[in-house]
Structure formats: structure tokens, C-alpha cells
What does this fold into?
Amino acid sequence: MADYILRRLIYMLITLFAVASILFLMFRMLPGDATLQVISPAMDEAVQQRMKAAFGLDKPLLQQYFIYLKNLVTMEWGRSFVTAQEVTAIVSYRFWNTLLLMVSGLCMTLTLGIGLGIIMAWKRNSPLDIGGTVVGLIFQAAPPFITGLLLLMTLSYRLGLFPTGGMYPAGARPDSIFGLLLMPAFWERIVLPTFTVGMYYLATPLLVMRDSMLEVLGSDYIELARAKGLKSSVIMFRHAARNALLGVVTLASILVGFAVGGQVVVESLFSWPGMGQLMVESAASHDYPVAQGTFLMLAILVIGLNFITDILYSYLDPRIKVSAEGISR
Amino acid sequence: MSNNRVLRVKNLNVRYQTQQGPVHAVNDVSFDVFQDEVFGIAGESGCGKSTLIRALMRLLPDSAEVTANEITLSGQNLESMPERRFREEVLWSKMSLVPQSAMNSLNPVYRVGNQIMEAIQAHSSKTNAQARERTAHLFDIVGLQPDLMDNYPHEFSGGMRQRAMIAMSLALDPGLIIMDEPTTGLDVLVQERILRRIREIREEISSSIILITHDIAVIAEMSDRIAVMYGGYFMEQATAIDLFETPSHPYTLGLKNAFPSIRRKGQELISIPGSPPTLIGECKGCPFWERCPFSVEHCSNETPAIEKLAQYHEVRCFRHKDTPQLRELASKKGTWLSLD
Ligand SMILES: Nc1ncnc2c1ncn2[C@@H]1O[C@H](COP(=O)(O)OP(=O)(O)OP(=O)(O)O)[C@@H](O)[C@H]1O
Ligand code: SF4
Ligand SMILES: [Mg+2]
It folds into this structure.
């Protein structure tokens, strides 16, 4: 097991390295010179040269790349072109906000998808089964932007049931993440965005769970479980769902990647101060260091969540550990 | 053979409703299983063997319709028994199964020993320690090292999984163990060892066994009494000795003819020209008539009734009175080749 985790960790580092390298290239190949934001051509030629040297831009590309990698590791991600704040400071604050919303959205998608998928397979072809499929597909077809907007218009503006956005009331910024989690106002505000992303991605785990349940229910070990005289709830949950779950966990790592897309939309819509919103803002204001930091942090988030799903999968499926042991006849 | 009856089945029928029409998978099957005996059911693939035992264990899908005049297990009427009682009091504790696909019947995500403990604990109030001890003992009985209990199914070979399944079937000392082709899919050597183990176990336990197979050599070697199944019907039923010394049904004669030496293992029962009926739609006449070299006119539109030839010897054929003559003819090659 430790072996497996170590291997996964190494893969994770390699992926991160690749993402960082792609980012490096991307920001240098993007149309338009990023340095124009800071080093204006209107300045004196000598000043321009000096500034380029100060930023290390006079060095060969390969050397710049190594410096870039070194700075990444040592957490020197530069300063915002706009506010001159440390990128790491901006991004790390946003990181937790995004993580909170993303995890709560994924939790909703997965628990609802898995739970409902089990029941739908159990009561196959019942109105619940059909209704569940239809609802899942409707929310998948509707862009989260529309769903979120409708929710805001009805539940927030019209009925006043939920705040219209943000993470906490203006001026009540908590000093730590724990302070935030203790605020009822925070929980009030996370409901709508969570629901919006949660429902958007619901159809996939729901239908995958339902289908793999149906497949598992037709398998030989389920027939044996029935022959053993086990209760149908035990057969459903302990024997069938446990196996069907494997399919959904594999899917979850893909879902994590997709979730970033929905995250950007929902954060902008609900003024959620996360990385999705930051990404849009920094791109709009050509704040390259911040944009780069945001991309990187999002990549770390996705890769990290993937790592967790991998570990979870290996825990759920004993066959993953085959190589370690081995049995002779 | 004691006269203590464990199982009685009378006039069992199973129909599957399908898009192509009803499939008559089991037709008018009646038999008894006595204490301590091995009752063999032999028949080609698709003749309804597994359907029959699924009907007994109530494992059939909703598309299957079961009717019977009587199903009694150890004196209890199973037909009228409510679902819950059947599950709690009959399944596994009185009637257990070694399924046809024993290789894939263990849940891949749980340890083998725990799956046996689960069966024990579902039907008794044994503590974990007691159930574990019992499982270790069962492993020992079937020739598996008890310390393999904590392995997962994928760490077992096919033969080991088969043994584990047999161990599980013994867990609650059921009166009846149904083994559905317990050796198919295993190589001949492993098959031999498993069969030997089953024979040894028979000496130690008092369970009766229904042994299903399409390997005539296996059935001849293991069974006290044998039923020959064809097209959903039991065509002939006899003690093993009677069946091989005085076979009486044309189908049995054809099989026997195809297997001059029943000691050779691994051969299947398909050597009579033609193929078995599909069982779809209303079954008219004797199911064997299209392949039968001895068929007479009414064979194709009337179903023959069961005739009793001796105690424990029954045959379903209109020409049951001509058997000596048919036996003579059946041993000649030309009889079977003359069919097209
Ligand atoms: N769920 C089902 N729905 C419809 N028809 C079925 C179903 N299960 C089995 N049958 C049909 O019923 C007949 C008997 O099948 P069964 O599995 O009982 O045969 P078998 O004797 O056990 O064969 P094998 O030796 O291949 O296991 C076959 O014609 C099969 O196609
Ligand atoms: S009833 Fe007729 S067709 Fe059927 S086995 Fe007897 S002789 Fe052959
Ligand atoms: Mg079968």
C-alpha cells in the first residue's frame, strides 16, 4: 500500500511539473507581450533595459525557465501587476474559498448521485427511476449560468430566502477558515452555488451508479448473496453498491477536472471570492502573475483531488494491490 | 439409501416470458431426494438444469413463472412459505448451493473467509470468533489452509475458489446441498481432486447432494441415482447401476452409445445427430422426437407420460415396453446415422 501511495505521489509530482512547464510556455507564447503591462515602450530605452534585467527577462529562455521552476518551489510567485500584492498571498486566500465550494459541490453531486443511483437501480423502471433520470439530464443540459441565475432571481431576489452572493456579509470578514466555518452567514451563502454546480454535474455519477448497480446486480456473486439468504438491504448495500461504487470513484477523478469549468461560472455569478473569479478578473485586467498563479493553483487542486480519489479507489478495490502480495496454489 | 426423504418435488414447471414467446425451461419434473444420497441430474447445455434449481431456491428473475403441485424440504412445504421465512429458515441453513459459476461467485471486494462467516452469521447468533473458528474448520475440510481465510478471491486459483464455495455450502450443515456443475471450467487434474474431495466429504457429513453436470462420466462416478434431463423434461430416472446396465429411454441409449466408456472424463453429452429443442413456444409431443430413431406417429403430437419400470426406475417414452429391442438396435451404428 505504502508502495502504491509513493508511486502515485511521484506521478502527481511529474504531472505538476508538466503543468508548470506548459504554463511557462503558454504565458510566453500568448499573443501580445505580457511585459507591456509593466515595461511601457514609452519609457526611456535604458530604463526599459534595466527593468528587463531586473525581471530577468534579458536571460536566455532556458535559464528563465529554471529560475521560474526554482521560484515556484520556493513559493516566490511574484507580485500582482495591479495591486502589487504577493501572488501567493492572494491565491492562497482564494484557494480555500474555491476548495470549500468545490468540495461541497462535489460532495453534493456524489452523495446524491450515488444514493439516488442505488435506489433507482433497486426500483428499476419505477416513476422514481424515470423521474431521477429526467431531472439529472435536465440539470445537465441547462448551463449552470442559467440555473444559477434562475435560483438567484427566484430564491434570493424574489423570495429573499438566500443572500444574493459573496461568502460572508460585507465587512464581516472572518480572520481564519475556522472562523468562516463557524459563521451561519457563510452556510447560508454556500447553499445556492453548491446546488448550482452540484445539480449540473449530478447526471453523470447518477447514471453511472445506476448502470453499474444494474450490471452488478446481474452478477454471479449477487445471485450467491441471495442464495445465502441475506436481507435485500444487505445485498443492495454491502454487496452490490460497494462494487458499483468502484465505477463512480473512477469517474470522480474525471469529474474533478470538469468541476473547474462550472466553478469559474458559479464563482463569478455568486460573487464567490475564489480562484475561478480571480482567474476571470486577472485575465481581464492582464494581471499575468496572478493569472499564472491561479492556473497553477487550480492545477494543484485538481491533481491533488485526483490523488485522493486514486488512494480511495485502491482502498475500495483490493485487486489494486495485487502486485505486492501473491498466492501460490 | 435410506428411505428418509429430504426433498420431494412434484410436477414442477417453469416458464420464462421472453420477447420471442414463453420459454418452457422446466416441464412436469417430479423427483425425490433421500437422505445421504447423491442425486445426479445429467443433461445437455440449455436443457433446464440450472432453471430447475433456481426455482427450488427462488432465485429466478421476475420473468419466470413457477408452478408445482408440491415442493417439500424436510417435511416443510416450501411453496406456500412466505418470502421472509424462506430466506431466514430455508436458504443456506437447510438448502445451500455451489453455483455453476463458482469461480465468479465470490464477491471480489471482500475476504473469502469473511464471506463464509457472513453466511454463518446470517443464520445463527455465532460471535465473530465462533464463526471464524467454524470457517477455519470448513477450510480444513475442503483442503484449504485455514490461514488463507483472510485472502481476497483474486488471490485464489480457480480450484481454490471452488473449494471455498464448497466450504461455504457446508457452513450450516444443510440437509441438502445443490452443486451446479461444480467442476466445469477447471482443468482435468483439479477437477479430479475436487471430485475426490467431495466424495470424502460425503463420508463425513449427512447432507444429501443434488449434483448437476453435463459430464456423464462424473455423474456415473458420483451419484446414487440419476435423472436424465432433455428439453426441460426428466426423460429417465434410475439408480446409477440400473441406468448404465438397463438404460431404457432412447435418449439415454443414444448417450450411452456415444460414450462406450463412461470412465473417460471431460466429454460432453452431444453426440446424437441434430440439436436439442429451443424450448420456445408451446411444446408439443415428445421433445426428443425429431432426433429419435425409434419415434412412432403420435410421438410428434402427444407428450408421453412417465412409466414406472421398477422401483426408482422411470422413463418417459411411448415405447417403454420395447426397450430390450431398442437397446439392441441402439447399439448398432446405423440406427443413429440413418437420421438426417
Ligand atoms: N432469464 C432467462 N430468460 C429467458 N430464458 C432463459 C433465462 N434463463 C435461461 N433461459 C433459457 O432456459 C433454458 C434452460 O436454461 P438453463 O440455464 O436452465 O440450462 P442449463 O441446463 O443449466 O444449461 P447449462 O448446462 O448451459 O448451464 C435455456 O433455453 C435458456 O436459454
Ligand atoms: S416417445 Fe417417441 S420420440 Fe420420444 S423417445 Fe420415445 S419413441 Fe422416441
Ligand atoms: Mg446451468
User: Anything to note?
Assistant: The longest strand of chain B covers residues 5-18. The mean pLDDT of chain B is 88.
